[in-house]
Amino acid sequence: MTKPTFDPTSDSQLADPYPTYTRMRDQCPVFHDEKTGLFVVTRHEDVVHVAHDPRTYSSESAVKATTGPEADEVKQILAEGWSLTPNLTESDGEEHTRLRTAVNRVFTPRRVAELEPFITATGEELIDRFAAAGSTDIIENYAWPLPLSVMARILGVPAGDVPLLRQWSHSWLKLSVGGGEVAERAECARDVIAMQNYVMAMLLDPGPAGDGLIASLAADHDENDLDDVELMRIVMNLIIAGHVTVTRSIGNGLVSLLENPDQLAALREGAVPPEAMVEEILRFESPVQGLFRTVTAETELAGTRLRPGDRVMVHFGAANRDERALADPAAFDIRPRTGRKMLAFGRGIHTCLGAGLARLQLRIAIPLLFDRLPGLRLGPADARGRERLLIARGFDELHLQWDVSRVQEARQ
Protein backbone atom coordinates (compact mmCIF):
# COMPACT_ATOMS: atom_id res chain seq x y z
CA MET A 1 0.00 0.00 0.00
CA THR A 2 1.49 3.33 -1.09
CA LYS A 3 2.14 5.82 1.68
CA PRO A 4 0.16 9.06 1.30
CA THR A 5 2.02 12.23 0.37
CA PHE A 6 1.23 15.17 2.65
CA ASP A 7 1.70 18.39 0.68
CA PRO A 8 -1.21 20.82 1.24
CA THR A 9 0.46 23.60 -0.77
CA SER A 10 0.80 21.50 -3.93
CA ASP A 11 -1.57 22.26 -6.80
CA SER A 12 -3.43 18.96 -6.48
CA GLN A 13 -3.99 19.20 -2.73
CA LEU A 14 -4.84 22.90 -2.92
CA ALA A 15 -7.64 21.86 -5.25
CA ASP A 16 -8.83 19.00 -3.01
CA PRO A 17 -6.78 17.70 -0.07
CA TYR A 18 -9.53 15.56 1.44
CA PRO A 19 -8.90 12.24 -0.36
CA THR A 20 -5.35 12.41 0.99
CA TYR A 21 -6.62 13.06 4.50
CA THR A 22 -8.98 10.10 4.25
CA ARG A 23 -6.04 7.84 3.38
CA MET A 24 -4.02 9.28 6.25
CA ARG A 25 -6.84 8.65 8.74
CA ASP A 26 -7.26 5.08 7.50
CA GLN A 27 -3.63 4.06 7.04
CA CYS A 28 -1.57 6.20 9.42
CA PRO A 29 -3.68 8.45 11.72
CA VAL A 30 -0.48 9.91 13.20
CA PHE A 31 1.36 10.43 9.94
CA HIS A 32 5.10 11.14 10.08
CA ASP A 33 5.99 13.56 7.30
CA GLU A 34 9.68 13.04 6.61
CA LYS A 35 10.01 16.30 4.69
CA THR A 36 8.96 18.55 7.59
CA GLY A 37 9.48 16.14 10.49
CA LEU A 38 5.89 16.73 11.59
CA PHE A 39 3.59 14.09 13.07
CA VAL A 40 0.22 14.95 11.50
CA VAL A 41 -2.81 13.93 13.60
CA THR A 42 -5.88 13.45 11.42
CA ARG A 43 -8.57 11.54 13.33
CA HIS A 44 -11.19 13.51 15.25
CA GLU A 45 -10.74 11.55 18.49
CA ASP A 46 -6.96 11.99 18.49
CA VAL A 47 -7.11 15.70 17.68
CA VAL A 48 -9.49 16.22 20.61
CA HIS A 49 -7.16 14.22 22.86
CA VAL A 50 -4.16 16.40 22.00
CA ALA A 51 -6.17 19.61 22.41
CA HIS A 52 -7.21 18.58 25.93
CA ASP A 53 -3.69 17.66 27.05
CA PRO A 54 -1.68 20.91 27.03
CA ARG A 55 0.84 19.50 29.52
CA THR A 56 2.03 16.83 27.08
CA TYR A 57 1.45 18.91 23.93
CA SER A 58 2.74 22.45 24.40
CA SER A 59 1.45 25.34 22.30
CA GLU A 60 4.86 26.98 22.06
CA SER A 61 5.46 27.86 18.37
CA ALA A 62 1.87 26.81 17.60
CA VAL A 63 1.78 28.50 14.17
CA LYS A 64 5.32 27.66 13.06
CA ALA A 65 5.78 24.55 10.93
CA THR A 66 9.54 24.46 11.46
CA THR A 67 11.60 25.65 14.40
CA GLY A 68 14.94 25.93 12.65
CA PRO A 69 17.24 28.97 12.87
CA GLU A 70 16.19 32.22 11.26
CA ALA A 71 18.36 33.97 8.67
CA ASP A 72 20.74 36.56 10.15
CA GLU A 73 19.26 39.38 8.04
CA VAL A 74 15.78 38.65 9.38
CA LYS A 75 17.02 38.32 12.97
CA GLN A 76 18.75 41.71 12.74
CA ILE A 77 15.50 43.38 11.67
CA LEU A 78 13.44 41.64 14.35
CA ALA A 79 15.99 42.68 16.97
CA GLU A 80 14.80 46.27 16.44
CA GLY A 81 11.51 45.34 18.09
CA TRP A 82 10.27 42.92 20.72
CA SER A 83 9.89 39.15 20.80
CA LEU A 84 6.74 37.92 19.02
CA THR A 85 6.03 35.30 21.68
CA PRO A 86 4.55 34.31 24.05
CA ASN A 87 1.12 35.39 22.83
CA LEU A 88 -2.44 34.09 23.19
CA THR A 89 -1.96 31.38 20.58
CA GLU A 90 1.57 30.38 21.55
CA SER A 91 1.54 30.09 25.34
CA ASP A 92 0.72 27.55 28.02
CA GLY A 93 -0.47 27.26 31.61
CA GLU A 94 -0.65 30.29 33.89
CA GLU A 95 0.93 32.51 31.26
CA HIS A 96 -1.87 31.71 28.80
CA THR A 97 -4.50 32.21 31.50
CA ARG A 98 -3.14 35.69 32.35
CA LEU A 99 -3.20 36.78 28.72
CA ARG A 100 -6.66 35.34 28.03
CA THR A 101 -8.21 36.81 31.17
CA ALA A 102 -7.21 40.30 30.06
CA VAL A 103 -9.52 40.16 27.02
CA ASN A 104 -12.22 37.64 27.99
CA ARG A 105 -14.66 40.38 28.90
CA VAL A 106 -14.58 41.82 25.38
CA PHE A 107 -16.10 38.71 23.80
CA THR A 108 -19.07 38.12 26.08
CA PRO A 109 -22.32 37.23 24.24
CA ARG A 110 -23.82 40.61 25.10
CA ARG A 111 -20.89 42.62 23.75
CA VAL A 112 -20.70 40.51 20.62
CA ALA A 113 -24.44 40.96 19.97
CA GLU A 114 -24.06 44.74 20.31
CA LEU A 115 -21.82 44.72 17.23
CA GLU A 116 -24.53 43.38 14.90
CA PRO A 117 -25.71 46.82 13.63
CA PHE A 118 -22.12 47.87 12.90
CA ILE A 119 -21.34 44.61 11.07
CA THR A 120 -24.47 44.96 8.94
CA ALA A 121 -23.83 48.62 8.16
CA THR A 122 -20.19 47.91 7.24
CA GLY A 123 -21.22 45.05 4.95
CA GLU A 124 -23.82 47.26 3.24
CA GLU A 125 -21.29 50.04 2.74
CA LEU A 126 -18.74 47.69 1.20
CA ILE A 127 -21.32 46.20 -1.18
CA ASP A 128 -22.42 49.70 -2.23
CA ARG A 129 -18.90 50.30 -3.56
CA PHE A 130 -19.04 47.46 -6.12
CA ALA A 131 -22.72 46.56 -6.61
CA ALA A 132 -23.01 48.54 -9.86
CA ALA A 133 -19.95 46.86 -11.40
CA GLY A 134 -21.48 43.42 -11.93
CA SER A 135 -18.36 41.61 -10.75
CA THR A 136 -15.64 41.89 -8.13
CA ASP A 137 -12.89 40.05 -6.30
CA ILE A 138 -14.96 39.34 -3.20
CA ILE A 139 -11.89 38.61 -1.07
CA GLU A 140 -10.21 41.92 -1.84
CA ASN A 141 -13.31 44.09 -1.62
CA TYR A 142 -15.44 42.39 1.03
CA ALA A 143 -14.06 39.34 2.84
CA TRP A 144 -11.01 40.97 4.36
CA PRO A 145 -12.12 44.60 4.93
CA LEU A 146 -15.31 43.56 6.74
CA PRO A 147 -13.81 41.60 9.67
CA LEU A 148 -10.80 43.90 9.90
CA SER A 149 -13.11 46.91 10.14
CA VAL A 150 -14.99 45.15 12.93
CA MET A 151 -11.77 44.38 14.79
CA ALA A 152 -10.57 47.97 14.33
CA ARG A 153 -13.85 49.14 15.88
CA ILE A 154 -13.34 46.82 18.87
CA LEU A 155 -9.75 47.90 19.40
CA GLY A 156 -10.27 51.60 18.77
CA VAL A 157 -8.02 51.72 15.69
CA PRO A 158 -8.86 54.52 13.22
CA ALA A 159 -10.81 53.21 10.22
CA GLY A 160 -8.31 54.78 7.84
CA ASP A 161 -5.59 52.47 9.15
CA VAL A 162 -7.43 49.23 8.30
CA PRO A 163 -5.43 48.65 5.06
CA LEU A 164 -2.22 48.91 7.08
CA LEU A 165 -3.51 46.28 9.50
CA ARG A 166 -4.16 43.97 6.58
CA GLN A 167 -0.66 44.37 5.14
CA TRP A 168 1.01 43.89 8.52
CA SER A 169 -1.16 40.88 9.41
CA HIS A 170 -0.30 39.17 6.15
CA SER A 171 3.40 39.71 6.80
CA TRP A 172 3.17 38.50 10.41
CA LEU A 173 1.48 35.29 9.30
CA LYS A 174 3.99 34.56 6.53
CA LEU A 175 6.89 35.22 8.89
CA SER A 176 5.40 33.11 11.69
CA VAL A 177 4.51 30.08 9.58
CA GLY A 178 8.04 29.92 8.18
CA GLY A 179 9.52 29.24 4.77
CA GLY A 180 10.04 31.55 1.80
CA GLU A 181 13.03 33.45 0.46
CA VAL A 182 15.18 35.47 2.86
CA ALA A 183 14.46 38.78 1.06
CA GLU A 184 10.73 38.19 1.34
CA ARG A 185 10.99 37.24 5.01
CA ALA A 186 13.09 40.35 5.66
CA GLU A 187 10.34 42.52 4.17
CA CYS A 188 7.78 40.74 6.33
CA ALA A 189 9.96 41.36 9.37
CA ARG A 190 10.01 45.09 8.63
CA ASP A 191 6.21 45.10 8.51
CA VAL A 192 6.03 43.25 11.82
CA ILE A 193 8.30 45.82 13.47
CA ALA A 194 6.13 48.61 12.05
CA MET A 195 3.04 46.90 13.47
CA GLN A 196 4.68 46.52 16.88
CA ASN A 197 5.62 50.21 16.96
CA TYR A 198 2.12 51.23 15.85
CA VAL A 199 0.37 49.20 18.56
CA MET A 200 2.84 50.26 21.25
CA ALA A 201 2.28 53.91 20.36
CA MET A 202 -1.50 53.45 20.68
CA LEU A 203 -1.11 51.76 24.07
CA LEU A 204 0.94 54.70 25.31
CA ASP A 205 -1.43 57.29 23.79
CA PRO A 206 -4.81 55.99 22.50
CA GLY A 207 -5.68 59.51 21.30
CA PRO A 208 -9.20 60.40 20.07
CA ALA A 209 -10.12 56.71 19.61
CA GLY A 210 -9.69 56.13 23.33
CA ASP A 211 -12.84 54.10 23.90
CA GLY A 212 -11.64 50.81 22.39
CA LEU A 213 -9.94 47.76 23.81
CA ILE A 214 -6.45 49.20 23.36
CA ALA A 215 -7.29 52.13 25.61
CA SER A 216 -9.02 49.80 28.07
CA LEU A 217 -6.00 47.51 28.29
CA ALA A 218 -3.72 50.49 28.82
CA ALA A 219 -5.99 51.93 31.53
CA ASP A 220 -6.22 48.58 33.35
CA HIS A 221 -2.47 48.08 33.17
CA ASP A 222 -1.99 47.34 36.88
CA GLU A 223 -5.16 45.29 37.25
CA ASN A 224 -4.18 43.05 34.33
CA ASP A 225 -0.69 42.49 35.75
CA LEU A 226 0.65 42.64 32.19
CA ASP A 227 3.50 44.79 30.91
CA ASP A 228 3.36 46.91 27.76
CA VAL A 229 5.01 44.26 25.58
CA GLU A 230 2.51 41.60 26.67
CA LEU A 231 -0.37 43.98 25.95
CA MET A 232 1.12 44.77 22.55
CA ARG A 233 1.29 41.06 21.71
CA ILE A 234 -2.35 40.59 22.75
CA VAL A 235 -3.49 43.38 20.44
CA MET A 236 -1.46 42.06 17.50
CA ASN A 237 -2.79 38.55 18.10
CA LEU A 238 -6.38 39.82 18.11
CA ILE A 239 -5.89 41.85 14.92
CA ILE A 240 -4.52 38.86 13.03
CA ALA A 241 -6.59 36.00 14.45
CA GLY A 242 -9.65 38.24 14.60
CA HIS A 243 -10.10 38.51 10.86
CA VAL A 244 -8.38 35.68 8.95
CA THR A 245 -10.92 33.03 9.99
CA VAL A 246 -13.83 35.17 8.83
CA THR A 247 -12.07 36.22 5.61
CA ARG A 248 -11.36 32.62 4.63
CA SER A 249 -14.79 31.36 5.65
CA ILE A 250 -16.60 33.97 3.57
CA GLY A 251 -14.75 32.79 0.47
CA ASN A 252 -15.01 29.09 1.33
CA GLY A 253 -18.69 29.44 2.21
CA LEU A 254 -19.65 31.27 -0.96
CA VAL A 255 -17.99 28.64 -3.16
CA SER A 256 -19.57 25.77 -1.21
CA LEU A 257 -23.05 27.31 -1.42
CA LEU A 258 -22.79 28.23 -5.10
CA GLU A 259 -21.51 24.75 -5.97
CA ASN A 260 -24.41 23.19 -4.04
CA PRO A 261 -27.51 25.05 -5.29
CA ASP A 262 -29.91 22.83 -3.32
CA GLN A 263 -28.24 23.94 -0.10
CA LEU A 264 -28.29 27.57 -1.17
CA ALA A 265 -31.99 27.27 -1.99
CA ALA A 266 -32.70 25.82 1.46
CA LEU A 267 -30.94 28.81 3.02
CA ARG A 268 -32.66 31.40 0.83
CA GLU A 269 -36.10 29.85 1.39
CA GLY A 270 -35.64 29.94 5.15
CA ALA A 271 -35.75 26.16 5.48
CA VAL A 272 -32.37 26.24 7.25
CA PRO A 273 -31.28 28.87 9.78
CA PRO A 274 -28.14 30.83 8.91
CA GLU A 275 -26.55 29.63 12.15
CA ALA A 276 -26.58 26.05 10.80
CA MET A 277 -25.10 27.27 7.52
CA VAL A 278 -22.22 28.85 9.42
CA GLU A 279 -21.41 25.66 11.31
CA GLU A 280 -21.32 23.59 8.13
CA ILE A 281 -19.13 26.10 6.28
CA LEU A 282 -16.64 26.05 9.14
CA ARG A 283 -16.65 22.24 9.26
CA PHE A 284 -16.60 21.54 5.55
CA GLU A 285 -13.67 23.82 4.69
CA SER A 286 -11.97 24.60 8.00
CA PRO A 287 -10.27 28.02 7.64
CA VAL A 288 -7.54 27.01 10.09
CA GLN A 289 -6.57 23.58 8.84
CA GLY A 290 -4.31 22.89 11.78
CA LEU A 291 -1.89 24.19 14.40
CA PHE A 292 1.28 22.79 15.89
CA ARG A 293 2.19 21.37 19.28
CA THR A 294 5.53 20.38 20.82
CA VAL A 295 5.68 17.11 22.76
CA THR A 296 7.02 17.65 26.30
CA ALA A 297 7.14 14.05 27.58
CA GLU A 298 7.38 10.62 26.04
CA THR A 299 3.90 9.42 25.12
CA GLU A 300 1.92 7.30 22.70
CA LEU A 301 -0.81 8.49 20.35
CA ALA A 302 -2.83 6.10 18.18
CA GLY A 303 -0.05 3.54 18.40
CA THR A 304 2.75 5.98 17.54
CA ARG A 305 5.51 6.69 20.05
CA LEU A 306 6.26 10.37 20.48
CA ARG A 307 9.30 11.80 22.25
CA PRO A 308 10.06 15.17 23.87
CA GLY A 309 10.70 17.77 21.18
CA ASP A 310 8.65 16.03 18.50
CA ARG A 311 6.42 18.41 16.56
CA VAL A 312 2.77 17.47 16.13
CA MET A 313 0.24 19.07 13.78
CA VAL A 314 -3.33 18.81 15.05
CA HIS A 315 -5.20 18.79 11.75
CA PHE A 316 -8.66 20.27 12.31
CA GLY A 317 -9.47 20.14 8.60
CA ALA A 318 -8.89 16.38 8.43
CA ALA A 319 -10.66 15.73 11.74
CA ASN A 320 -13.72 17.65 10.56
CA ARG A 321 -14.03 15.17 7.65
CA ASP A 322 -13.65 12.05 9.83
CA GLU A 323 -16.44 9.54 9.09
CA ARG A 324 -15.87 8.13 12.59
CA ALA A 325 -17.29 11.35 14.04
CA LEU A 326 -19.93 12.31 11.44
CA ALA A 327 -21.95 10.41 8.87
CA ASP A 328 -21.24 11.36 5.25
CA PRO A 329 -18.65 14.04 6.11
CA ALA A 330 -17.72 14.63 2.45
CA ALA A 331 -21.19 16.05 1.75
CA PHE A 332 -21.82 19.77 2.17
CA ASP A 333 -25.13 19.76 4.04
CA ILE A 334 -26.19 22.86 5.97
CA ARG A 335 -29.20 21.20 7.61
CA PRO A 336 -28.77 20.81 11.37
CA ARG A 337 -27.59 17.30 12.16
CA THR A 338 -26.39 15.51 15.26
CA GLY A 339 -22.77 14.56 15.72
CA ARG A 340 -21.34 17.46 13.74
CA LYS A 341 -18.58 17.86 16.39
CA MET A 342 -17.00 20.72 14.50
CA LEU A 343 -13.38 21.57 15.43
CA ALA A 344 -12.72 24.69 13.35
CA PHE A 345 -12.25 26.81 16.48
CA GLY A 346 -10.14 24.25 18.33
CA ARG A 347 -10.83 22.67 21.70
CA GLY A 348 -9.59 22.95 25.26
CA ILE A 349 -7.85 25.98 26.71
CA HIS A 350 -7.03 27.30 23.24
CA THR A 351 -10.60 27.31 21.94
CA CYS A 352 -10.86 30.46 19.83
CA LEU A 353 -11.63 33.46 22.01
CA GLY A 354 -13.57 35.21 19.24
CA ALA A 355 -15.57 32.24 17.97
CA GLY A 356 -18.89 33.92 18.80
CA LEU A 357 -17.91 37.09 16.97
CA ALA A 358 -16.72 35.12 13.92
CA ARG A 359 -20.02 33.22 13.80
CA LEU A 360 -22.01 36.45 14.00
CA GLN A 361 -20.06 38.03 11.15
CA LEU A 362 -20.53 34.99 8.91
CA ARG A 363 -24.23 34.80 9.74
CA ILE A 364 -24.60 38.39 8.54
CA ALA A 365 -22.00 38.71 5.79
CA ILE A 366 -22.86 35.76 3.55
CA PRO A 367 -26.69 36.11 3.34
CA LEU A 368 -26.24 39.87 2.85
CA LEU A 369 -24.37 39.27 -0.40
CA PHE A 370 -27.18 37.09 -1.77
CA ASP A 371 -29.75 39.68 -0.64
CA ARG A 372 -27.99 42.58 -2.34
CA LEU A 373 -26.56 40.93 -5.48
CA PRO A 374 -29.25 39.10 -7.52
CA GLY A 375 -27.99 36.21 -9.61
CA LEU A 376 -24.77 35.97 -7.60
CA ARG A 377 -22.55 33.33 -9.19
CA LEU A 378 -18.97 32.19 -9.50
CA GLY A 379 -16.74 33.91 -12.04
CA PRO A 380 -14.41 32.01 -14.41
CA ALA A 381 -12.49 29.12 -12.87
CA ASP A 382 -9.20 30.85 -13.62
CA ALA A 383 -10.33 33.92 -11.65
CA ARG A 384 -9.85 32.32 -8.27
CA GLY A 385 -6.77 31.24 -6.38
CA ARG A 386 -6.14 29.62 -3.02
CA GLU A 387 -3.63 30.68 -0.39
CA ARG A 388 -0.53 28.51 -0.27
CA LEU A 389 -0.33 28.13 3.49
CA LEU A 390 0.21 24.85 5.31
CA ILE A 391 -2.05 25.79 8.22
CA ALA A 392 -4.89 27.53 6.38
CA ARG A 393 -7.46 26.95 3.67
CA GLY A 394 -8.95 29.93 1.93
CA PHE A 395 -8.87 32.05 -1.19
CA ASP A 396 -6.60 35.01 -1.82
CA GLU A 397 -8.60 35.78 -4.98
CA LEU A 398 -12.23 34.92 -5.77
CA HIS A 399 -14.15 36.71 -8.52
CA LEU A 400 -17.95 36.65 -8.43
CA GLN A 401 -20.53 37.98 -10.89
CA TRP A 402 -24.18 39.04 -10.61
CA ASP A 403 -27.01 40.65 -12.60
CA VAL A 404 -26.43 44.40 -12.61
CA SER A 405 -29.81 45.12 -14.24
CA ARG A 406 -31.59 43.51 -11.31
CA VAL A 407 -29.48 45.51 -8.85
CA GLN A 408 -30.57 48.70 -10.61
CA GLU A 409 -34.21 47.56 -10.59
CA ALA A 410 -34.07 46.97 -6.86
CA ARG A 411 -32.86 50.53 -6.32
CA GLN A 412 -35.71 52.12 -8.31
Structure summary:
The chain is an alpha+beta fold and 412 residues long. The protein contains 19 helices and eleven strands. The termini are far apart.
Q: Helicity range of the residues?
A: 40-55%
Q: Count the DSSP helices.
A: 19
Strand share of the residues?
A: 5-15%
Overall outline: globular
Please report the distance between the alpha carbons of the first and last residues.
Answer: 64 Å
The radius of gyration computed from the alpha-carbon positions, rounded to a whole number of angstroms, is 21 Å
Low-confidence region ranges: none
* Arithmetic mean of pLDDT: 92
The main sheet orders its strands as 1-2-8-5-3
- Secondary structure class reads alpha+beta
Instruction: Provide the succession of SSEs.
Output: HHEEHEHHHHEHHHHHHHHHEEEEHHEEEH
Major sheet size, sense and barrel closure = 5 strands, mixed
Number of β-strand runs: 11
Key features?
412 residues; alpha+beta; five-stranded mixed sheet; four-stranded antiparallel sheet; 51% helix
